[in-house]
Amino acid sequence: MTQQNPANTSAECLSRIRVVLSHTSHPGNIGSTARAMKTMGINKLYLINPKEFPSETATALASNADDVLNTAIVVGSMEEALAGTTLQIALTARRRELAHPLQTPRQLAPEIIETIQAGQDIALVFGTEMSGLTIDEVLLCNRMATIPTNPDYSSLNLAQAVQVFAYEIFATLADDVSYLAESRDNATHDALEHFFTHLEATLSTIGFLKPDAPKRLMPRMRRMFTRANLEREEVDILRGWLRATTTTERWLKPPK
């Protein structure tokens, strides 16, 4: 049975997430944010009074996330950006008075997943590059988040912050990455047995294995190669190497 890509099965849930950027001053940050969003399957971008948009700089830094930019919604207020959402998460690096307790993206991820799986929309809200969100903007949100960083250097740019938050959501929603694993054509039992027979004969020929005093060499070699979980092609390579060892004269000459 073909395994589904979790990124596909979670697409509908991720479509419930909107990233809101408030008063972004540099268009490059909008493009980089679009790229960060697309890598995590999020495509709804809301821009509150951006200084410059559309922009060639934004498009260049989006790195083929043009679809996110092309469908971005530009609004004039935070109220418009949050309309229709039931969970609004303000990202801030500072403690705010009269606001909700600070949580990390990882702590909030389960609630976010529960909300979007229930078919409700959420907003991840980010402020300006220099000063972040205003107190009034934070008060329009019902959750507050911060990204733990080095206390001596806590500088994250806008797109990095979006990437971290989006990753925590995506990883919680689709934590199975087995679909990325390369398919293996493992060696059969009989192929391995032929290899071990060939290996023992070769080691005897070159004098590494003493037939009259084998000790535990072959059991250890067997355990080592069995632990490697060899593929069919790898066994073929090893047997080719064994053939070359006993048929090429230079292999039989002792080192000078």
TrEMBL record:
<dbReference type="InterPro" id="IPR029028">
    <property type="entry name" value="Alpha/beta_knot_MTases"/>
</dbReference>
<dbReference type="Pfam" id="PF00588">
    <property type="entry name" value="SpoU_methylase"/>
</dbReference>
<dbReference type="GO" id="GO:0005829">
    <property type="term" value="C:cytosol"/>
</dbReference>
<keyword id="KW-0963">Cytoplasm</keyword>
<keyword id="KW-0949">S-adenosyl-L-methionine</keyword>
<protein>
    <recommendedName>
        <fullName>tRNA (cytidine/uridine-2'-O-)-methyltransferase TrmJ</fullName>
        <ecNumber>2.1.1.200</ecNumber>
    </recommendedName>
</protein>
<dbReference type="InterPro" id="IPR004384">
    <property type="entry name" value="RNA_MeTrfase_TrmJ/LasT"/>
</dbReference>
<feature type="domain" description="tRNA/rRNA methyltransferase SpoU type">
    <location>
        <begin position="17"/>
        <end position="167"/>
    </location>
</feature>
<keyword id="KW-0489">Methyltransferase</keyword>
<dbReference type="GO" id="GO:0003723">
    <property type="term" value="F:RNA binding"/>
</dbReference>
<keyword id="KW-0808">Transferase</keyword>
<dbReference type="InterPro" id="IPR001537">
    <property type="entry name" value="SpoU_MeTrfase"/>
</dbReference>
<comment type="function">
    <text>Catalyzes the formation of 2'O-methylated cytidine (Cm32) or 2'O-methylated uridine (Um32) at position 32 in tRNA.</text>
</comment>
<comment type="subunit">
    <text>Homodimer.</text>
</comment>
<dbReference type="GO" id="GO:0106339">
    <property type="term" value="F:tRNA (cytidine(32)-2'-O)-methyltransferase activity"/>
</dbReference>
<dbReference type="InterPro" id="IPR029026">
    <property type="entry name" value="tRNA_m1G_MTases_N"/>
</dbReference>
<dbReference type="GO" id="GO:0160206">
    <property type="term" value="F:tRNA (cytidine(32)/uridine(32)-2'-O)-methyltransferase activity"/>
</dbReference>
<keyword id="KW-0819">tRNA processing</keyword>
<comment type="similarity">
    <text>Belongs to the class IV-like SAM-binding methyltransferase superfamily. RNA methyltransferase TrmH family.</text>
</comment>
<dbReference type="GO" id="GO:0002128">
    <property type="term" value="P:tRNA nucleoside ribose methylation"/>
</dbReference>
